[in-house]
Specification:
Number of strands: 23
Radius of gyration: 23 Å
Structural class: alpha/beta
Strand content: 15-25%
Number of helices: 19
Shape: globular
Largest sheet: 5 strands, mixed
Length: 530
């Protein structure tokens, strides 16, 4: 039996053959890339797939997700379109069901016509006595009805009438998790993995932890992902002193959402100077440099990746100090060898980026954050004033040698990797964006590298590479020159640079036709059903 598939008549994104129209896959490996004629001659017995001009590229990696929360959001009440407190309350009234916990996500008061949030009494009335959990878009605070909120009374971050943050938020998240049945969780995780495959994603980095999802949730996700035809789940757990748990589940590291601080939208990211729109607070820092260093040393000696969620400038300063202390304990070479990672890393300067590069740190970042909240009139500017112009400096990090791995933080932003690539190119702060090629690599090869796969092949379509690919319906391809001062576009194949679809604002983004992981098809609308 011949297990070679020959893709013909397309446009193949390959550094080994930038003008290729064909690709052969045998088993789980790309074995050949080139032109149609030689492909037919070299692989006469192969199963032929007519691409009809479609674009074939390395499949995406999403370097930061929350699977169950995303699945629940996909099938539940979506609050991203709500524009005021009245609209939120109306949405709750229409969705609440007696005897069930209503879980909804996505409200963002910075986009409302009036920033006034509903009171708990108003929410209780709309809920009709039911338990209601409404997470803010950044998932670092939530509105809750009294049926849930009262359980967190007295905890840090408790509010009698407003959003719950910090420990109070963790308490009610745990209560919500406890109310989700095993079947409901499976449906949510299945919906998430299906959506990822539909978006050309073959690998996701699940950022789990005791305050995020729980061990049972992680174990169920790993079991589901082990079924044939699923995207890969690279699992991280955000907790110290959890080596036994990491070994039990075969985790890549104790990283992901191990919180150094919170989020800017909820005003819990740790800042050196107070928030512009709430001068009485500088946010929250949950770990100090000594605790960060201890975790880094423990993971380094155990052969695991360590990592942290860090956003604010005071949080980043503490992380850098933690790495400096860890280096004194284990040495720079051992520290760098583990490829530790930082999630979000929004407020980092050039000097800090250079230090992080020296320690081999990967930055797992979310370009759609800038698209949603950047600019002079966005949420970042409201929270930080002039400091907002320094956020998410992708070009600075790349120039200093930090590995970039892009993702969504889904459900915070959507599973739309091409939209993320476009956002990284068209950064809302001049000079902070990347070339299209660099942005695409950060959402493909960069994700594999951030998970410890650095073989020089994975995440590209060259002979010998794992056959992780996606087929796209896309417009004419274009090439950006590497001139950092200006983006010039060309369709000339003599440039020998693999082309990409146009990423201009407003241009239609590619539509996924097929996704394959290690040669196995996960999603397919290219081939007519038999």
């Amino acid at each position: 039996m011949n297990d070679t598939t020959l893709l013909l008549g397309g446009r193949i994104h390959s550094p080994s053959s930038p003008d290729a129209t064909a690709m052969a896959v045998t088993g789980d490996t790309v074995v050949w890339v080139g032109q149609d004629g030689p492909g037919r001659a070299l692989h006469p017995e192969a199963e032929v797939v007519d691409l009809d001009g479609a674009f074939v590229a390395p499949a995406f990696v999403d370097a930061h997700v929350h699977a169950t929360a995303t699945g629940l959001h996909l099938s539940g009440l979506d609050l991203t379109g709500v524009r005021d407190a009245g609209g939120l309350l109306a949405a709750v009234r229409s969705a609440v069901r007696p005897g069930e916990v209503l879980i909804a996500h996505g409200w963002d008061e910075t986009t409302w016509t009036s920033p006034r949030l509903p009171s708990r009494a108003e929410l209780n009335e709309a809920a009709g006595g039911a338990a209601v959990y409404l997470s803010r878009v950044d998932v670092h605070s939530a509105l809750a009805s009294s049926a849930l909120a009262d359980a967190a009374s007295g905890a840090e971050g408790w509010s009698q009438d407003g959003p719950l943050t910090r420990e109070a938020h963790h308490h009610i998240r745990a209560a919500v998790r406890a109310g989700i049945s095993a079947e409901q969780r499976r449906r949510a995780q299945d919906a998430f993995l299906t959506r990822a495959a539909e978006r050309g994603i073959v690998s996701v980095h699940e950022c789990a932890g005791p305050d995020i999802s729980g061990e049972d949730d992680l174990a169920a996700l790993l079991a589901l992902a082990a079924e044939p035809g699923r995207p890969e789940v690279v699992a991280y757990w955000g907790e110290r002193d959890a080596l036994t748990l990491a070994e039990r589940h075969g985790l890549r590291g104790l990283a992901g959402d191990f919180f150094v601080d919170g989020a800017l939208g909820s005003r819990t990211a740790a800042l050196h100077e107070p928030y512009t729109d709430q001068p009485g607070t500088t946010g929250s820092r949950y770990l100090d440099a000594e605790a960060i260093a201890e975790h880094l040393v423990t993971c380094t000696e155990a052969g695991l990746q360590a990592g942290f969620h860090v956003i604010g400038d005071a949080g980043v300063t503490e992380v850098v100090r933690g790495f400096q202390l860890a280096e004194k304990a284990v040495g720079q070479r051992a520290l760098a060898a583990r490829g530790h990672r930082l999630e979000h890393l929004e407020m980092v300067d050039a000097d800090q980026a250079a230090l992080l590069a020296g320690w081999g740190v990967a930055a797992s970042m979310q370009p759609q954050f800038d698209a949603l909240w950047g600019g002079t009139d966005g949420m970042y500017a409201a929270r930080l004033g002039v400091r907002a112009a320094g956020l998410n400096p992708f070009s600075t990090l790349a120039a200093k040698g930090v590995v970039l791995a892009f993702g969504s933080d889904s459900p915070v932003t959507t599973l739309e990797p091409w939209a993320a690539v476009r956002a990284a190119v068209h950064h809302r702060t001049a000079g902070f964006g990347l070339s299209a090629r660099a942005a695409f690599n950060a959402h493909t090869r960069g994700g594999h590298r951030a998970a410890g796969v650095n073989d020089g092949l994975t995440g590209s379509l060259v002979p010998g590479a794992p056959a992780h690919y996606a087929i796209w319906e896309a417009a004419d391809l274009v090439i950006a020159t590497p001139d950092s001062r200006v983006q010039r576009w060309s369709t000339d194949p003599r440039s020998r640079v693999p082309a990409l679809p146009p990423l201009d604002p407003g241009a239609p983004l590619p539509t996924c036709l097929r996704t394959a992981r290690a040669g196995r098809v996960l999603y397919d609308v290219l081939t007519p059903a038999a």
